[in-house]
């Protein structure tokens, strides 16, 4: 059984972009219905020579605002339960939102190992903004840019060290 890494966080922080970055081109996003974005949710990644099962907690994007927390929770619950490591993503450019804080509190109570990621942290401004994520109480945020491919090697090393 491969170790399981789950990518979690509120919508739009870059979870699916990170997922695709970790999984690589071979298993890139496939759209199986016209007009409907169906992100692949699971894939296998090779990190420092180690095979890892990666799960993207997608599908939150359609949640109504008033049920966002509930939907985030139910969508992530099952995945987090089987996670050997949770990658909790925030958007360094947007800063920490109430949804991030709420989700972080819930995640802390799940008792799974968490690695805090400050995504969209390309460039110097991004790195500075990433420091705000310290306030979540989930340890030192790892700054990266899934879209620009910055910090991905370091992230993979950190993941493998924790598995
Ligand atoms: P998800 O809802 O958490 O799965 O987020 P997505 O992966 O769909 O990304 C949401 C938006 O953020 C998209 O427009 C991405 O192109 C953008 N995005 C993702 N990663 C980065 C990044 O590292 N930097 C910047 N500037 N934008 C990013
Ligand atoms: Mg997504």
From TrEMBL:
Superkingdom to which the source organism belongs: Bacteria
Give every EngA-type G domain span.
3-163
Q: Name one GO biological process term.
A: ribosome biogenesis
User: What are the entry keywords?
Assistant: GTP-binding, Nucleotide-binding, Repeat, Ribosome biogenesis
Which residues are recorded as binding GTP 1? 9-16, 56-60, 119-122
Task: Enumerate the GO terms in the molecular function aspect.
Answer: GTP binding
> Could you tell me what this protein does?
GTPase that plays an essential role in the late steps of ribosome biogenesis.
What the record says about family reads:
Belongs to the TRAFAC class TrmE-Era-EngA-EngB-Septin-like GTPase superfamily. EngA (Der) GTPase family.
Assembly and partners are described as:
Associates with the 50S ribosomal subunit.
The name of this protein is GTPase Der
* Protein source organism: Swingsia samuiensis
The gene is: der
Q: Parent protein range shown?
A: 5 to 167 of 453
């Amino acid at each position: 059984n491969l170790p399981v890494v789950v990518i979690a966080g509120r919508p739009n922080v870059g979870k699916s972009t990170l997922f695709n970055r970790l999984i690589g081109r071979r298993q890139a996003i496939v759209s199986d219905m016209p007009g409907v974005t169906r992100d692949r949710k699971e894939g296998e990644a090779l990190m420092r020579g180690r095979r890892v099962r990666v799960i993207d907690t997608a599908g939150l994007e359609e949640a109504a605002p008033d049920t966002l927390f509930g939907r985030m929770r139910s969508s992530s619950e099952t995945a987090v339960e089987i996670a050997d490591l949770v990658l909790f993503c925030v958007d360094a450019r947007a800063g920490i939102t109430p949804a991030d804080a709420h989700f972080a509190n819930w995640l802390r109570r799940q008792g799974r190992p968490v690695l805090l990621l400050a995504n969209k942290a390309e460039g110097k401004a991004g790195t500075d903004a990433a420091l705000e994520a310290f306030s979540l109480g989930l340890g030192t945020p790892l700054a990266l840019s899934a879209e620009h491919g910055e910090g991905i090697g370091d992230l993979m090393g950190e993941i493998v060290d924790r598995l």
